[in-house]
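sorry for the late reply, my laptop died twice this morning and i had to redo everyting from scratch. anyway the thing you sent over, i finally got around to it. pasting the sequence first so we're on the same page, its 199 residues, then the predicted structure underneath. double check i copied it right bc i was rushing
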Amino acid sequence: MTDSKFTSLSRRNFLLTASAAASSLAAPALAQTAGGADVARDLDEVVQRNVSSFRSLEWQPYFNNLNKGAILVDIDSRALHMWTEDGSYALYPSSVPQSEDLTRRGRTSIIRKVDGPTWSPTPAMKKRNPEWPPFVPAGPENPLGTHALYLTWTYYRIHGTHDTRKIGRKSSNGCIGLYNEHIAEVFSKAKLGTQVLLI
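ok and here's the structure:
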């Protein structure tokens, strides 16, 4: 009898606690502004997030093997998935091309790796932005960041960026951008011949 009474009270306490917690969740959320002031935000407000990019994937639906490793770039979810030859896996948020006409999909591979790349705009970029410089040396102003992986497709790269606001957005002129610390990891694991698939 005591056991069933204890169970009943525990359930009741649980339900009361859960109910109290739920009612506190219905209140507006407080967020801090840059100045440190608390402001109320309606939890029903729609906030666009890129959650799907942080879902891990298996390599088998996309590649026949992991010889020299494999990189999958999902343009829609703005994520780069990487598998090394031994099957280890990593997932990175990325920037992707800003429009469909700048986007290329399909299979390619890494043909060159450059630590401290220089940058020159493509002819199409120069036409769209005639004010851009013809050449930018390696360094903090370079749009390719600290490392670049050159693909078999002319002008297309997987590279870093010093402008971290671009990551997770449609912001590039065709390339795939990563945070500099992430491209350094990918660069260290990638090999010449690593297969790359953009979907």
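The longest strand covers residues 106-115.
thats about all i looked at so far, will dig more tmrw
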